Amino acid sequence: MKLEYQMLIDGNLCEGRSGRRDKVINPANGQVIAQVPLADKEDVELALGAARCAFDKGEWPKISLAKRKDYLLEISKAILDNAAEFAQLETQNAGKPIKESTFMDIPSSAKTFEYFAHNLKRYLKGRKVELESCAESFLYPEPRGVVVLIVPWNYPLLIACWKMAQALAAGNTIILKPSSSTPLSALKLGAIMQKIGLPKGVVNVINAPGIEIGSYLCSNSKVDMISFTGSKEAGEQIMSFASKNIKKLIMELGGKSASIILADCDIEAAVNASLCSIFLNQGQMCTAMSRILVEKKIYEEFRKQFVEKAKRIKLGDPFNPETQMGPLISSGQREKVISYAKEGEREGAEVLCGGKIPKDPKLKNGFFFEPTVFVNIKPEMKIFQEEIFGPVACLSEFSSISQAVELANNNSFGLACSIWSQDLEKAKKLSMQINAGVIWINTYGSFYNEAPYGGFKGSGFGKELGREGFLEYTRLKHVNCDLSEGGKPLVSQWYAF
Ligand code: NAD
After folding, report:
1. Distance from the alpha carbon of residue 152 to the mean position of ligand 1, in angstroms
2. Under CATH, to which class is 258-441 assigned?
3. What percent of the chain has pLDDT above 90?
4. Considering the entire predicted model, what is its pTM?
5. 262: Cβ contacts below 8 Å, ≥ 6 apart
6. How do strand 456-457 and strand 413-414 relate by DSSP bridges?
7. Per-domain residue ranges for the chain?
8. Separation of CA 147 and ligand 1 centre (Å)
9. Which of 176, 285, 286 is the pocket-test mutation for ligand 1 (most atoms within 8 Å of CB)?
10. Domain spanning 3-253+459-479: which superfamily?
11. Which tens digits make up the pLDDT trace of 393-419?
């Protein structure tokens, strides 16, 4: 049965004005799973108008924080009530093993709404600034206005929920644009928002390829802020569109993150976590640790264990609970990964496992690719410098901390780094030398609603989550009040004739 979902514009579930529809593909078997509406400029204009009106004239930015909290809690509950269907959609549409969707993506999505519901009052509290003058100043975080949320296909629901929960908790109205490869969970969430009865126009969900509507959406003067997660290339385009009308931007872009495995680490834990850090979600993670740097003393042992286990990863139907790796998102993405693998070999790197499409006939219609490990890497190689966004690990050895730092930092991205050592002081000291926005010590991929996340350099700017991420969705107003005796400040004397 084909699934049917509609867009949400101004409180109505609807088709696009043009009546155009797009096919949504299951990457595990290439079959069409859904027909979804496609927005064009007219729909974008309606969604922007609705969000603008809901912000400028509607109740959402002004309702009591207690009521806003209740709405967010209701959304969180609705996600959990529909958890099984959401997990199936993510698995069917993004090829994620069902274990990942069920235990990671969906509960975390609900939890983010819950967290910001419980903390919005605390985060939105104004504060007094102590002044030396006879005056007082107060700082008030206010919502920014109409916020466009553009999300990628690798964590379709989770990243949408991060952005929605923060933007709504802060009092903004929103237009969510999922990736047109994976629109199903966002469209379903739109339907849930409508059922919950959020004031109309507060949440709008539209679907279209960024290339079709991006310029119109992102340069529009009705938009106050764009929160984007996706590739560096699309981020650059969006920044240039947004420069037409000044707006606040958050750019969460790509990565080419490094793990630094020190000789004194717990080697088994480091191997297992490193497998997870590059092969989870088929390596389609912005924080994928695609460069694994191992101290010379343990390099051979680490390499042996890592490759042995990489070879045993179970590829298969993402709905099978035993499956550890599903398909890549599309044939285009697989072509990109294959071309990097070929380029790696051409440049002289050696493939120790994978590097090809699996032979299993059961997988022949999906976009599968084997977990791949390269060694004999030179730092300037493309596979070591560019984001592949697939299950391709580069193993490299280092002999000194300074060499590890040099290797890790010599890259145009700066999203994350994972350091493995039993000497926590040494690891913390090393973390200070790494040019990346998130450093994990003896762990990988821990995201917390309480703590900000975001990259440096080519990985973008701005934070998501935590107080700092939440405040990105607000603007700070400074109210200053003179307290001079007799109510006459110095400024009123200057022209007192
Ligand atoms: P993408 O940049 O192709 O697309 C992301 C979103 O942007 C989609 O909704 C797409 O339709 C839209 N888009 C594309 N071009 C646009 C344009 N010109 N104008 C407006 N919108 C446009 O990325 P993707 O292939 O969906 O996702 C993979 C990328 O996302 C990787 O580079 C990955 O590292 C990055 N990513 C980053 C983070 C992070 O937190 N830093 C998280 C997840 C993914």
Report:
1. 4
2. alpha beta
3. 96
4. 0.96
5. 295, 419, 420, 421, 423, 426, 427, 430
6. antiparallel
7. 3-253+459-479, 258-441
8. 17
9. 286
10. Aldehyde Dehydrogenase; Chain A, domain 1 (3.40.605.10)
11. 999 999 999 999 999 999 999 999 999
